[in-house]
Specification:
0% strand; elongated
Length: 103
Amino acid sequence: MKPSAAVHRLRLVSGPEGLSFLLLLTCSVLKRTTSFNGVPVMGAVHGALFVLYVVFLAQAAMAQRWEGKRTVVLFLLAVVPTGGFFADRMLAKEERGEQALAA
């Protein structure tokens, strides 16, 4: 099945969502070890990107008629540090038609 615009949107937000998660974790460590507290800002940024990821994931799953397992794998990648980068790579391959998204 040809990838849709929903898959492209999901791919565009997956990388920044993964990066924001890593930055939020870094800010959490810095909050406890230094006087720097970037958690409120990074928390809001990551929260917004995570919500966009979930919305775009639901749209892509419906548009592509993905099986539940595939959707769950892509969701779990959003809650694992660096998972967003793996999701981006998987979605890029699907967009190029190199392989079906493995789940």
